[in-house]
Amino acid sequence: MAGIKNWIAESFPVDQEALIKLTAEPIPNHLKRWWWALGGTPLYMFVVQVITGIMLIFYYVPEADKAYESVAYITYTAKFGWLIRSIHRWSSNIMIAALLLHMMRVFFTQSYRKPREMNWMFGVVLFLLTLMFGFTGYSLVYEQMSYWAMKVGTGIAGATPLIGGWIADFMRGGSEIGQNTLTRFYLFHVVLLPVLTFIAVGIHLYLIRAHGVTELKFKGDENKEKKTYPLFPDHVFTELIMVSIIMVVLVVLSLLFPAQLGDPANPNVTPLHIKPEWYFYPVFRWLKITNLTLGVLGPMLFLAILFFWPFIDRFFEKRFPGKELGFWIGIAGMLLINVFLFWEIIGH
Amino acid sequence: MDRRNALKNMFAFVPLSAAFAGLTAMGIRFITPIKREVQRRIFTVHLEELPVNATRKYKDLMGKDLLIVRTGEREVKALSTVCTHLGCTVYWQKDKKEFYCPCHQGRFDKDGNVLAGPPPRPLDSYKVELEGDNVFIYFKDKEG
């Protein structure tokens, strides 16, 4: 045994001291609150997505006339296929919901402030990547909703001023939705977006480690002697409990509401009740009440504000000190999104 | 958290690990291709067209070659022509009433049993049924 241990230590040298230092990163006490485990949730969901996604590729065929059939095979014939697909689908929904909550938490605790502006921006990039994952993902099923979502989605991109035409053609791989579009969406979904996400997550985590977690003061924390606790094993345990709970939720949701399969894509018939996934509802409603240019520019402006928010917030803080303008703008933005979201839900 | 507490907490994750193990098992089951085969009874040849000791080449439903051999007045064999050694094609030797594999000199009798050479097991055989003078063979087929 000692021989093997020595051999491993020799051929794979690990600096024990450095490892302990790296994993025992002191973490402020407020992270023991559950609200603070939300940043890890999307990461865990991403891992679930990668694993179940790789499994789905075992059977998925990215060909226009076979894609739907292969999804049907996964759903109805392959052993536990319905479960794998349902978990893939539900974890994407939970990932987006957890991301939204995480962003809200960071926003309202102003954790994006100097020196963490860059990390907020990478966070927004990750949010966008996740939405693109969602969009390209449900397009791959190649059912009616997928087809018409691709049609509408690339149409929206096409309405972008100046470069819209090029973007739409690039996404579709031509002027019409077809085999090229499916190939491209498949490539985006299983290669480009995962690679970009891995890189962005890496930078996001590195920046968290480099800056440390924002220290926040809470009532009751003043009396505690220790201001921090170690990442490993203490915080890792907290995260593992979170993982357990979410796993139960994921499986229960998949059992009760397994992923469905609609009619196969038919380029000649637009379904009567077409709607995207819930996370696109606000944009979908916005598109219904504005003209196309405004419909496209609105969300873009929203994303631009979100992306540059740390600087906008700083500007407000300098101009109107103590007024907490950023907080109220955040509340107003959330209200607006919720109005559009519920308007769309009720509108169905 | 000291080592003792950490170990104690670890026990809390026994059910979690069990659940992961369960999901992993399901995952492995998922990526393992389903093998569900059905047997189909198919008419192949009429005895009048197949004199004693004569053979007839045939392909099964999976596209594999087989040889139908009339070994007696009312005895017909259907054997795979794929040698069980390394997959070369075996030949029926009329005079010796044997199957012969030219690659490594494997020999099989009329029932496909190994007589000589390196083949590790008998030739794969198909179930044959005579109905009057009609020869029916049971072939494996993929379901659906």
Give the CATH level 1 class of the largest domain in chain B: Mainly Beta
CATH arch. level architecture of the largest domain in chain B: 3-layer Sandwich
Overall structural class of chain A, as computed from helix and strand content, comes to mainly alpha
Secondary-structure-derived class of chain B: alpha+beta
What oligomeric state do the depicted chains represent? heterodimer
Provide an overview of this structure.
The complex is a heterodimer of chains A (348) and B (144). With 348 residues, chain A is mainly alpha-helical. A two-stranded antiparallel sheet of chain A has the order 1-2. The mean pLDDT of chain A is 89. Chain A folds into two domains: 228 residues, Cytochrome Bc1 Complex, Chain C (Up-down Bundle), CATH 1.20.810; 74 residues, no CATH class. Chain B has a four-stranded antiparallel β-sheet, with no helix packed on it. Chain B is elongated, with a radius of gyration of 25 Å. At the A-B interface, helix 5 and helix 10 of A face helix 2 of B.
Walk me through the topology.
The complex is a heterodimer of chains A (348) and B (144).
Chain A: H1 2-11, H2 16-23, E1 26-28, H3 40-57, H4 67-76, H5 81-108, H6 117-140, H7 144-158, H8 164-172, H9 179-211, E2 228-230, H10 231-256, H11 281-289, H12 292-307, H13 309-319, H14 325-347
Antiparallel strand pairs in A: 1-2
Helix pairs in contact in A: 3-5, 4-5, 5-6, 5-10, 6-7, 6-9, 7-8, 11-12, 11-14
Chain B: H1 3-11, H2 14-31, E1 37-46, E2 55-59, E3 65-72, E4 75-80, E5 91-93, E6 98-101, E7 106-108, E8 114-116, E9 125-126, E10 128-131, E11 134-142
Antiparallel strand pairs in B: 1-11, 2-3, 3-4, 4-9, 5-6, 6-7, 7-8, 10-11
In short:
Chain A is mainly alpha-helical and 348 residues long. Helix content of chain A is 69%, strand content 2%.
List keywords for this structure.
heterodimer, A: 348 residues, mainly alpha, Cytochrome Bc1 Complex, Chain C, two-stranded antiparallel ribbon, 14 helices, 2 strands, 69% helix, 2% strand, B: 144 residues, alpha+beta, Rieske Iron-sulfur Protein, 2 domains, 4-stranded antiparallel beta sheet, 40% strand, elongated
